[in-house]
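Hi Y.,

Following your request, here is the sequence exactly as I used it, all 341 residues.
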Amino acid sequence: MYSYRFYFSCLCLVALLLTAACNRGANSAASTRQGVDYGAVKVPDFCADSAYQYVADQVACGYRTPGSEGQRRCAEYLVGQMRRWCDTVIVQPFTTKLWDGREVQGKNIIATTRGLRGDDDGKRVLLAAHWDSRLWADHDPDKSNHHSPFDGANDGASGVGVLMEVARAIATQPLGVAVDFIFFDIEDQGVPEWADSYEEDSWCLGSQYWSRHPHVPYYTAVYGVLLDMVGTEQPRYTKEQISRNYAGGIMNKMWTAADALGYGNIFVNNETDPILDDHYYVNRLAGVPMIDVVQNSQGCSFFKHWHTMGDNMEHVDRNSLNTIGVVLLKILYGDYGRDDG
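Below is the corresponding structure, written out as tokens. Let me know if you'd prefer a different format.
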């Protein structure tokens, strides 16, 4: 059994390191401006109250599990909201199988803002999060809840809520680069603890599909940032190994910006083990250098309420949403806030 749902086997880690060695050129190229004074970078306002409301709206749709009414309602909500701020929004439907062989339908939601120069120069940034909630609260202290779905307010909805507010902010002050927002579906339906087995590729099914079948042929981006579980009351992000190996320059950029803004106690300079999340497939299959900003509490699996019934709006913090949103805007506008970016 695995105490952390995402930790790699040794064999997978060896393959990761070999693949990452071949991608270091792309990683270096993805580091854009050097020596940016992030404290002085002007960014549009990030409204933490709005981000919080976007999280609450997703939860209010119901459980966002495969085939549910909540999945349908939330997809409609996300598409409708992103159309307010982005130039194009598409839904990428896909069929996949869960760990138990059940066939389900997923929807990756992809929204794009063109930027000041449009898309002709080929530069774009990819921002992502997963929007589904898990079918099983298999880490709940009450075993009677282990087969029950839960809200997924932090694990899923928080990252999407932050990116929705980032999209709104960018619409008020366009960047000099195109930005793609991808909300991956069916990320969180991997083998439950009570199944007494483990399959790494049973997780992140939406990002696996998109990475093999991007919404446009030969898709590429300068860099990518994945947000996962970013609404906890005590946020703590570490330099996770997959991100370091594939996109170390981007990770250093974001951690430098956070430190300049006084968030060095949240974006801690601590190198930690690899985590199997959507960024792994985006890096490995799609070839886009992407980092994972994911909660890493000390002494527990990700955060206290991970995969429990307690992952609800009671434990989503506005200040945490604001922190990650502001840092993300600072690196985007530090790189591409001017038309010569």
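The radius of gyration is 18 Å.

Thanks again,
Q.
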